[in-house]
Write a structure and sequence with these properties.
Length: 334
Amino acid sequence: MLADAAIAQVLMDVLAAAVPPFQHGAARVGAFVLLFGGLAAINIRGVRQGTGFAVAITIAKLVPLVLLIVVGLFAIRWAELRWSGLPSPAALGEGSLLVFFIFMSAEGALTASGEIRDPARTVPIGLLAAAATLVVLYVALQLVSQGVLGAELGRQGSTPLASVAGRVLGVPGRNLLLASAAVAVFGTLTASMVNTPRAFFAAARDGLLPSRLASVHGRFRTPHVAIAAYAALVCAFAASGAFRPLAVLATIAQLTIYLVVCLAVPRWRSLRDRVPGSFRAPGGPAIPVLGAVAVVWLLWHSTGAEVFAIAALIVLATTYYLLRTRVRGRLVHP
């Protein structure tokens, strides 16, 4: 939720470059309402409409980026790619904590697997293909951006790729990349609106959230209440915050979940024989141990205020869970 709110902030910052009123005030809040209201309406009509829209947006955002990479390779000044020094451990950790934001939540594709044909085959292939594509795309864009702008790259604010495009393609290229950035961020939100509300629906169906969130639309057969509720919550967060704090808090929250998963893997490995057909990663306990160490290293570079905010969230969520389960127990066994 915080991650989507942060992503929405990026989208609005990009749009504000062309429409200055979107920088702040009622116009920005109104734009958030229209954005999430529209996404909710599309996804309530069905997962096919939601995923189809997300696929179309993905294609539209990749074409300009690939064009920038191809043209930009011929404009690279290779001397700009040489390292003049290494960052301090503290700076590396703080930067990694923020950068990790763009690599997390790939597991979100699993939340809609109940509405995907042949999910046992489709979801793993999709995750692996997406991860490989992202690695290649990010590395290529970084090389082109650093090679074209050099030391100027760090002074380009929230639209560095538009500056690269302006340098190699002129004003039309800059405008194209601004539009592409808006489409890219919008595409991320459309995909998240397909996936995340299904987690609300599943939790409500299991009794962990209010039962109303488990409602299914009579015509479209989608979790319409969960979709609308999620859109409203993300819209509220996006309208009330800024990108960096939202992104860092979302990263810390997600890393906390990853840490718990890493610590649980050895136990699940010991239970593998009791779960026929389950997947077992190679490398024994080394992979979850290394994963846990990496997560702790990243979390170590968060600030005290950020840790306090996540700790408060965990306390509130735990308290709600305990109260909810107690109430359910009384209803089942009065």
